[in-house]
Amino acid sequence: MGLLSLMFIGLSDGRAERDHYVVAADGSGEFASVQEAIDACPSNRTARFVIYIKPGTYKEKIRIPADKTMLKLVGESYQSVILTYDHHAKITSDYASTRVYANDFYAENITFQNTIDSRRGGSQAAALRVDGDRAVFYRCRMTGFQDTYYLGGNHRSYNKECIIEGTTDFIYGDGISLFEDCTIRLRKDSHITAHSQRLVDGMPVNKFGYVFKNCRIQLYPGETVTKASLGRPWREGARVAYLYCHLGEQIRPEGWSVWNQNSNHETAFFAEYRNSGPGANPSERLP
């Protein structure tokens, strides 16, 4: 075998072993686009592949295909790394700024944003949609207005020390998700969650839905909110619980709400346990 062939084999092996890329908006990384880096990642990984994202605002519609398993996006801080776009449901059905199809996705120190304000002529406008299983978000920010954060497909996810902001039903879908030590910021007199699950023989397909543990429910800076609800049942089988959370005064006394006077609430399970703050008033909750 010639020297050139040996060199080629060595280069190929070295590339195969690579486990990270760097994205920089200023051109100092290997990619200036987050999506280009995702597209270049190897498929069907069983070990982590990391994309480090340098500070910048990246206006891109991000899609993480199902074959990009074990992908990890890491920013320097959620304040300095922003993935943003401005589509909404009136112009396309695929309106989420970032959508994750792959399993075992992990994101850290990143803001996921949709800038469409539903109060000013927009509509549903997700900043982040998760359709993969076992997703993890650590110290991330999901910010938008209506339907900010969609968790779908009965898939599982974990959110730790994240900030989630929105107006109406801004955490929604039929996913299973734990929110731990998160901050939930209200931008409108509306509803935080809109959960649902498919029923089989009259029972939800899963025992669990959304669990908020040791979270803080508070006002978005500069907004006026006086009567927000902890959630309402989007369709049948909703499951939502708040445990050890601090509930701000913006939470209405009855706590929860219904969906357009239909029967969805008859199969819903809404719970609170050992919450604190002016919005935690179990004696006035809906029966």
TrEMBL record:
Superkingdom as given in the UniProt entry: Bacteria
Transmembrane domains' residue ranges: none
GO biological process assignments: cell wall modification
Statement: the UniProt record of this protein carries the keyword Acetylation: no
Xref: Gene3D superfamilies: Single-stranded right-handed beta-helix, Pectin lyase-like (2.160.20.10)
SUPFAM superfamilies registered for this protein in UniProt: Pectin lyase-like
Domain named Pectinesterase catalytic: residues: 21-285
InterPro entries: Pectin_lyas_fold (IPR012334), Pectin_lyase_fold/virulence (IPR011050), Pectinesterase_cat (IPR000070)
Pfam families: Pectinesterase
Any single Gene Ontology cellular-component annotation: cell outer membrane
Keyword tags: Aspartyl esterase, Hydrolase
GO molecular function: pectinesterase activity
PANTHER family: ACYL-COA THIOESTER HYDROLASE YBHC-RELATED, PECTINESTERASE 53-RELATED
Family: Belongs to the pectinesterase family.
Protein name: Pectin esterase
Organism: Pelagicoccus enzymogenes
